[in-house]
């Protein structure tokens, strides 16, 4: 008799567990509007960099929500444009999207040979958030702030260079503009993403580096690099102790970047809407927001139309800045 009671209770508990287990989202999956296939998120930078870390952080709860396998596909190279070029040619069936920083998009203004037009060849789903550009130095040079870095450069003129995670983007131009503003020209050195740049900064192989704060904040806290200023008007939420270039007296250098999810061109509106709904739900999870903020992303979402308007305005402003520093499109 006791065994039968235990058996019934166990059966009830198992039924409840099935409804709340990690497999439960598959029950809801049919209502997502997404294809009942594995889903892929393209990332244009190597594993371990800020873009990759954020994409993987978002992918796990997305997997739980949709019941689909969500794969991060790193298509590193050419400052992220290879991944966007692949997205342009991907099937418009809702199975493939990309997580893209503004540092990649701006290259359409600086390298006309990139294989896509951001206004026509890819379809925005939603903004993920805004991000500041960070300028950091190697811990091996003993510099703690901009004033000390300027003094160090005067004593070490042969090392007036900085690594950039995306040549031809604002992780490149912000460093050039900073050097111009302080009166010491800085030479950009291209890197294939943040991970190899951080390794060289930590080892003292290069004195400084420039990229999205999402690429450097974790390493800054670990003492592998030292972020000495960012590109914002006010400090980023994740690191209020790091001064901005505006606070240091150079407000003309202030600029804000972003991360956005894109789909292939001609993706049907219902699929764009379905992706937007799921991504926004993940971005609204308090734990996910907290982790993204810690990485340097100030979470913010949008409709496709809102983001298109923002991107158009930003491209116009960025062109003005690029022209002002005399940079000529390459290739």
Describe this structure in words.
It is a single chain. This protein is α/β, with parallel strands linked by helices and 331 residues long. 44% of the residues lie in helices and 18% in strands. The chain has 13 helices and ten strands. The chain has helices spanning 2-20, 25-28, 50-66, 81-88, 102-105, 107-110, 146-155, 170-182, 194-203, 213-221, 269-283, 286-295, 304-324; strands spanning 39-43, 70-74, 96-101, 123-137, 161-164, 187-190, 208-212, 226-230, 256-263, 298-299. Strands 1, 2, 3, 4, 5, 6, 7, 8, 9 and 10 form a ten-stranded mixed beta sheet that branches. Helix 3 crosses helix 11 and helix 3 (50-66) packs antiparallel against helix 12. The longest helix has 21 residues, at 304-324. The protein is globular. The N and C termini lie far apart (82 Å). The relative contact order is 0.17. The model is unreliable at 1-30 (pLDDT under 50).
């Amino acid at each position: 008799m006791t065994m039968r009671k235990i058996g019934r209770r166990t059966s009830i508990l198992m039924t409840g567990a099935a409804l709340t287990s990690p497999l439960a989202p598959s029950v809801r999956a049919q209502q997502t509007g997404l294809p009942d296939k594995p889903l892929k998120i393209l990332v244009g930078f190597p594993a371990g960099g800020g873009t990759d870390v954020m994409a993987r952080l978002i992918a796990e709860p997305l997997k739980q929500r949709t019941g689909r396998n969500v794969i991060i596909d790193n298509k590193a190279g050419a400052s992220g444009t290879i991944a966007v070029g692949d997205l342009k040619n991907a099937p418009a069936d809702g199975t493939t999207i990309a997580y893209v920083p503004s540092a990649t998009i701006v290259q359409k203004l600086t390298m006309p040979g990139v294989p896509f037009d951001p206004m026509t060849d890819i379809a925005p789903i939603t903004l993920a958030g805004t991000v500041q550009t960070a300028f950091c130095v190697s811990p091996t040079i003993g510099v703690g702030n901009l004033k000390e870095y300027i003094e160090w450069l005067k004593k070490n003129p042969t090392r007036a260079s900085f690594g950039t995670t995306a040549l031809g983007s604002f992780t490149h131009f912000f460093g050039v503009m900073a050097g111009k503003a302080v009166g010491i020209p800085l030479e950009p050195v291209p890197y294939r993403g943040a991970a190899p740049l951080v390794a060289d900064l930590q080892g003292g192989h290069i004195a400084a580096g420039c990229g999205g704060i999402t690429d450097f904040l974790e390493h800054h806290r670990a003492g592998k690099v030292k972020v000495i200023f960012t590109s914002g008007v006010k400090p980023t939420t994740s690191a209020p102790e790091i001064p901005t270039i505006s606070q240091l007296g150079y407000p003309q250098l202030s600029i804000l970047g972003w991360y956005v999810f894109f789909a292939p061109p001609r993706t049907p509106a219902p699929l764009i809407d379905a992706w937007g709904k799921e991504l926004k739900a993940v971005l609204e999870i308090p734990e996910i927001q907290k982790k993204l903020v810690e990485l340097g992303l100030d979470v913010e979402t949008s409709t496709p139309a809102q983001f298109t308007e923002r991107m158009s305005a930003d491209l116009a402003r960025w062109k003005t800045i690029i022209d002002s520093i005399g940079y000529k499109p390459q290739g």
